[in-house]
Design a protein that fits this description.
By secondary structure, this protein is α/β, with parallel strands linked by helices. The chain has six helices and 15 strands.
Length: about 230
């Protein structure tokens, strides 16, 4: 995999260079101190992975991603884990490395990038745009999976919440796992599955989606942080 580094701190550049040299299937083709310097390079070269710092001198890493047409797999590097929430809706980000990070953690990020590159992007997109019908009070309601904010379980009932409606019917939360894109939806509590696209912030054991407060279960929190690329 061809990769580049966009990082303005020399010590951080050196660590990334050292780690990339240790991975046989990773080919570092260039390093840049600013996003603008890398812009023209990306327009004329094939890059599979970008190691991208968030705090850059000319434009932030997150803003830079939005300017790239057909961006490659991106691994964010930063000293500020709070920025992870801001990157939830950017599907091209495959992992989030908080400085300082170990080689083992770096290697996990590389494996995620490899999986993303080898998995056709259309599969995830098609499933997110997939529609289903649920039977509520003998009426079939059409839902686009990508519009679901979260799904809540209460005893024998499921409530599916979107920006415009709430639909409740008899079902079990476990039946929803196979219906949803696993890199976009995940369980954060025994009674809740959330859509990462709509996460606004996390405070303690509470996750906020628009005006909704979602509890984070103790047994789910560690996995949640890993899924959100904070650890």
């Amino acid at each position: 995999m061809n990769c580049i580094i966009i990082e303005d701190e020399i010590p951080a550049q050196n660590i990334l260079r050292h780690f990339t040299d240790k991975v046989p299937n990773l080919n570092l083709i260039d390093t840049f101190k600013a996003a603008i310097e890398a812009n023209s390079f990306l327009n004329s070269n094939t890059v599979d992975v970008i190691f991208l710092d968030i705090n850059l001198p000319d434009i932030s890493g997150l803003d830079f991603i939005k300017t790239i047409k057909n961006p490659p797999a991106i691994i964010m590097t930063t000293a500020y884990p709070d920025y992870a929430v801001s990157s939830f809706e950017l599907d091209t980000i495959v992992d989030y490395l908080v400085k300082p990070f170990s080689f083992d953690r770096f290697l996990k990020a590389i494996n995620k990038a490899k999986d993303r590159i080898e998995t056709p992007k259309s599969n995830t997109k098609e499933k997110a745009e997939e529609t289903i019908f649920i039977n509520v009070d003998k009426t079939l309601h059409k839902l686009t999976l990508n519009t679901i904010l979260y799904i809540e379980s209460d005893r024998n009932y499921i409530t599916v919440v979107t920006e415009t409606q709430k639909l409740s019917y008899i079902d079990a939360l476990k039946n929803w796992h196979s219906k949803l894109p696993e890199n976009q939806f995940f369980q954060v509590h025994k009674s809740f599955i959330i859509n990462r696209k709509f996460v606004d912030k996390i405070s303690g054991n509470t996750l906020f989606i628009k005006d909704h407060k979602i509890p984070i279960g103790r047994t789910y929190k560690q996995d949640l942080l890993k899924q959100l690329k904070i650890i």
